[in-house]
Design a protein that fits this description.
Elements lengths: L1 E10 L1 H9 L2 H4 L5 H8 L5 H18 L11 E5 L5 E5 L1 H9 L2 E10 L3 E10 L10
Antiparallel strand pairs: 1-5, 2-3, 4-5
Helix pairs in contact: 1-4, 3-4
């Protein structure tokens, strides 16, 4: 059963400016070391930063929480073994999702040089459904 869904589209330009302005240490306030390394390994890391920010925003909207919800700091956008985008949740946020009955999540990312889009779908299980989240 769908528990929440959201799509976020962002302009990449502010992220490009942030890359010009901020050192990687400043980026660490919003992104994990692995996310920063992945983004900076690309010639233009701005779309990669933007799409990760869009993913966090889409997750928050799908959860129906305020944009400044503190636990959104506990999410990292990673690549699954298959190469597909995925979330890695901190312990507290993972527990919050499980407490809401969310058992599976889906993340789709896309970007161009100008736009970044993320879509999140959260699924909940039926009572007694013991599927693994992911």
């Amino acid at each position: 059963m769908i528990m929440g869904s959201a799509t976020v589209v962002l302009d990449v330009a502010p992220f490009r400016e942030r890359l010009r302005r901020d050192a990687p240490e400043v980026l660490a306030e919003d992104y994990s070391k692995e996310e920063i390394a992945y983004c900076l390994a690309h010639r233009d890391g701005a779309p990669h930063l933007a799409v990760r920010h869009a993913a966090r925003q889409a997750l928050g909207r799908a959860m129906n929480v305020p944009a400044d919800f503190k636990l959104l700091d506990q999410v990292e956008v990673i690549r699954a073994e298959s190469g597909a985008p995925a979330f890695r949740f901190g312990e507290e946020l993972g527990a919050k999702l499980a407490g809401r009955g969310i058992r599976r999540w889906h993340l789709s990312l896309s970007h161009t040089r100008e736009l970044a889009v993320a879509m999140v779908i959260l699924e909940g299980g039926f009572p007694g459904d013991e599927e693994d989240a992911g």
